[in-house]
Model the fold of this input.
Amino acid sequence: MSIDVTSAHELWQVAVRRIEGQLSKPSLESFVKVMRPISLRDDTFTFAVPSRFAKEWVESRYLDLIRGALRAIAGRDLTITLSIADPPHVPQAISRPLTAPRTIDGLALSPKFSFDTFVVGTGNRFAHAAARAVAEAPARAYNPLFIYGGVGLGKTHLLQAIGHHVLSLETPYHVVYVSGEKFTNELINSIRDDRMPEFRNKYRTVDVLLIDDIQFLAGKERTQEEFFHTFNTLHESGRQIIITSDKPPREIPTLEERLRSRFGWGLITDIQPPDLETRIAILRKKAELDGIHIPDEVAEFIAERIQTNIRELEGALVRVVAYATLTRTAITRPLAEEVLRELLPPAPSRHITIHAIQRIVSEHFDIRVEEMRAKRRTKAVAFPRQVAMYLARELTDASLPHIGNEFGGRDHTTVMHACDRVRQALQQDPHLAVRIRQIVDQLRHG
Done:
């Protein structure tokens, strides 16, 4: 049986409406709605996706959900195949010979900031996925890509990783990496020295523009005016724009509405502070790159005490290693405690209890607390119980055996398994990550 593209398109639109309530808006907009139906022939539904990364992401995370939606509509199982779309037509104005040089202007890219050295966790997974998609297919996936988050969470790392990857592609690209402050200062100097044509030529003829800390443009009318026209020129000619900020566009004060609107043309994604496991992984990666062995108890100590800022996290490790090297002593937890005594805040007093976690999680999953504490195993209670165990491990000082005892006398290996299961689920389900974040906020703030 063969159905024409129009019918396939209509079937897909109905399926998307069924899926909408089951995925977060960023996931839906960035990976599902970009799927373009190509054909439906002999029960095989073929879609085009914008990049190899998008293809792998959909296949590993959303294919079962999509199959279920299509089955409910079509009344039969359909085989789904994904193909990478041909690149869109590139205007003649930006065509270039294959021998064109790979160039980087503006600020230099740090060799430390690549995708290989970026540690992926639940708080940055989506931003990392979007950055990879853009780097592999500039101007084909999300344009512009706007990444926001607090200081020291990895925005600049991802921005420069995109630059490194683009410069490594077979097709040569001209890349400019610049901060909002440098863009503003160059504009001021160009106006002063009557060199505006040179300034505009530099920024309006690039293939990929990487601009860090766009919030610096807030309140600067002439700079915003110039960037507005630069943005339009690049976007209209099929060039890629990637922007970072410490706030989402809607929260940047005195940012012109026309810029807010254009930033929303592509994908806006955030980076959240890393959880404990991610912080430990970051410290281990840093130690590995520096050729240093760091004991697990030292990594865990630093990660437990510095919870929001990756720069401070890595800085603390550097301080401990430097002291150990200069004094020729082993890196131990007592040494770390001594070296970082003035740097680290006192250990936070934890007001969150296991019983409070059980109560809040039970409310969110619509089960009774008694069921969570019971020894019997039921499917409806199993995953909420695992979520509660995971949060007890993350948010309290309780030992694994103590946590297990509070959940029907289970042993520590059961708790470890529960934590692993929830971490895997968080990697695959952005909606679950949002839900757990809501539970944590409720536990911390009431």
In short: The CA atoms of residues 188 and 223 lie 8 Å apart. The beta strands are 2-3, 36-41, 44-49, 79-84, 103-106, 145-149, 174-179, 208-212, 240-245, 267-271.
